[in-house]
C-alpha cells in the first residue's frame, strides 16, 4: 500500500481556496466537507494559500447555509497544534464574535464558539477577543437552550480566563451567575467546562467575593456531595480549594454542612479526590466551628490512616490537613493519643519537599500541647528537626524555627 502523502496536492489546495470565493451554497457546503475531512496536518497548506480571507467574507452571507459552511470551515482550520499567522487576524476574531452576537442558528453559534476556543489558546488572542466583546458574547450563549452551544461557549471562556483581565471582564459582564447555573446541566461536559471557568475565576479576590454573594460556596458543596461523575467532583473540589482563601468562605462551607462531605471524600478510593478533599478541608477549618465539625465527623482518624498512603500527593495533602487541625487544643489532645508525633518525625525525611514542609508545620502546631514536648525533646528527635534548617525551602525553615521556639518554651510535664 502506498504511503499517504504528507502534502496536499497544490492543485487541490488551490482549487479548494478558489471554490470558497463562490457564494453558491451547495458549492460551499461540499467544500466545507472536504476541508473538514482533510487531516489537520494538511490544513496549514490551506492557510498558507489564504483560505481565511474568503471564509471571513462568507460569514457575512445572507444565506444561512453559506454562513454555516464558512464558520464550520473556520472551526476546522483553527484546530492546529501550532498557531498560524492568519489565526491572529483581528478581522477573523471580529467576524466570529459578530456571528455569535447576531446569528440565531445554534449550529453556527456552536461552530463559532468552538473556533474562538481554538483561537484563545494563543495568548496574544486573549486580549483581542476581550476587546472585541467576545467574553460578553460568549456569556450570553451560556443561556442557550442547546447543550453543544453551552459546552463550547464555556470551553472558550475557560481558555480565555487564563488572562487576569479576562477574569475581571467576566465579572463585569455578570458571567459568574450563568456559569453556576450550568452546574445543574444534565450533560457532564457542560458541567465540567463551567467548573473549569469557575476554577480560574476563583483565583481572583474580587471574583471570590462575587462567588460568595451568588451563594456559590453552597452550590460547590452540592457538587462535591452529589451524584456527579468522578471528574466533575474533582473539578468541584479544585474550585472550592481556590474559593477557600478567605475565612468568610470557610464559614460558608461549615454552614452548608460541607465539612462532613469533605471528610467522606478523604475516604474515597480515588487519589485525586482524597488529595483535593484534604486540601479543601485544611482550608475550611479556620474556625472553631470548622475544627469541631471535622473532629466530630471522624476526620482525625481518617487523615492519620492516609498518612501511610503510597501516593505522595495524598500524604502531602493529609499532612496539610493535620497541620490545620492541630491548631485546635482539643484536636491536639486527640492527635497526641494517636501517637502521630513519631509518624510526623519520620515524614521529615520524606523525599517530597512539600510533605516535609507540612509535617514540620504540623509538629510546630502540636508543640503547643505540653504533653507531646517530652517525645520531641529526645536527642534523635531534636537532630531530625534541626536538620531541616538546611532545607532549600524557605517556608520549611520558617516552620522549623517555629517548632524549635515552641519546644524551647517552658512546659509542664
From TrEMBL:
* Record InterPro entries: ARM-like, ARM-type_fold, Armadillo, Armadillo-Ser/Thr_Kinase
What are the ARM repeat spans here? 91-134, 133-175, 257-299
What keywords does the record list, in alphabetical order?
Answer: Repeat
Stretch forming the signal peptide: none
Keyword Repeat attached:
yes
SUPFAM superfamilies in the cross-refs? ARM repeat
Q: Does the keyword Ligase apply?
A: no
> Which PANTHER family would you find in this protein's record?
ARMADILLO REPEAT-CONTAINING PROTEIN 3 (PTHR46618:SF1)
The protein, known as: Condensin complex subunit 1 C-terminal domain-containing protein
Q: Which species expresses this protein natively? A: Batrachochytrium dendrobatidis (strain JEL423)
Lineage runs: Eukaryota, Fungi, Fungi incertae sedis, Chytridiomycota, Chytridiomycota incertae sedis
Amino acid at each position: 500500500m502506498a504511503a499517504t502523502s504528507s502534502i496536499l496536492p497544490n492543485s487541490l489546495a488551490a482549487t479548494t481556496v478558489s471554490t470558497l470565493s463562490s457564494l453558491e451554497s451547495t458549492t460551499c457546503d461540499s467544500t466545507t466537507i472536504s476541508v473538514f475531512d482533510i487531516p489537520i496536518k494538511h490544513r496549514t497548506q490551506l492557510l498558507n494559500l489564504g483560505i481565511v480571507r474568503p471564509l471571513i467574507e462568507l460569514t457575512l452571507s445572507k444565506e444561512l447555509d453559506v454562513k454555516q459552511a464558512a464558520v464550520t470551515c473556520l472551526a476546522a482550520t483553527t484546530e492546529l497544534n501550532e498557531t498560524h499567522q492568519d489565526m491572529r487576524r483581528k478581522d477573523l476574531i471580529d467576524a466570529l464574535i459578530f456571528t455569535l452576537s447576531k446569528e440565531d442558528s445554534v449550529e453556527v453559534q456552536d461552530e463559532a464558539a468552538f473556533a474562538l476556543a481554538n483561537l484563545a489558546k494563543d495568548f496574544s488572542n486573549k486580549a483581542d477577543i476581550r476587546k472585541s466583546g467576545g467574553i460578553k458574547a460568549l456569556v450570553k450563549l451560556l443561556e442557550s437552550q442547546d447543550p453543544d452551544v453551552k459546552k463550547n461557549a464555556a470551553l472558550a471562556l475557560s481558555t480565555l480566563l487564563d488572562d487576569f483581565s479576562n477574569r475581571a471582564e467576566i465579572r463585569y459582564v455578570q458571567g459568574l451567575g450563568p456559569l453556576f447555573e450550568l452546574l445543574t446541566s444534565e450533560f457532564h461536559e457542560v458541567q465540567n467546562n463551567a467548573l473549569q471557568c469557575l476554577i480560574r475565576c476563583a483565583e481572583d479576590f474580587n471574583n471570590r467575593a462575587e462567588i460568595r454573594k451568588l451563594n456559590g460556596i453552597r452550590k460547590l458543596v452540592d457538587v462535591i456531595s452529589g451524584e456527579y461523575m468522578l471528574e466533575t467532583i474533582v473539578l468541584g473540589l479544585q474550585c472550592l480549594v481556590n474559593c477557600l482563601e478567605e475565612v468568610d468562605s470557610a464559614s460558608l462551607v461549615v454552614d452548608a454542612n460541607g465539612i462532613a462531605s469533605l471528610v467522606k471524600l478523604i475516604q474515597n478510593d480515588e487519589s485525586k479526590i482524597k488529595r483535593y478533599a484534604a486540601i479543601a478541608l485544611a482550608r475550611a477549618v479556620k474556625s472553631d466551628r470548622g475544627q469541631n465539625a471535622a473532629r466530630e465527623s471522624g476526620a482525625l482518624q481518617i487523615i492519620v490512616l492516609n498518612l501511610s498512603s503510597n501516593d505522595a500527593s495524598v500524604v502531602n495533602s493529609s499532612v496539610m490537613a493535620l497541620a490545620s487541625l492541630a491548631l485546635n487544643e482539643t484536636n491536639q489532645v486527640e492527635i497526641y493519643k494517636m501517637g502521630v508525633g513519631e509518624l510526623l518525625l519520620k515524614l521529615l525525611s520524606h523525599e517530597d519537599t512539600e510533605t516535609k514542609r507540612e509535617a514540620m508545620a504540623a509538629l510546630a502546631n502540636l508543640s503547643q500541647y505540653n504533653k507531646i514536648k517530652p517525645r520531641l525533646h529526645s536527642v534523635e528527635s531534636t537532630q531530625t528537626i534541626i536538620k531541616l534548617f538546611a532545607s532549600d525551602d524557605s517556608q520549611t525553615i520558617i516552620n522549623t524555627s517555629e517548632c524549635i521556639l515552641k519546644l524551647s518554651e517552658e512546659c509542664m510535664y
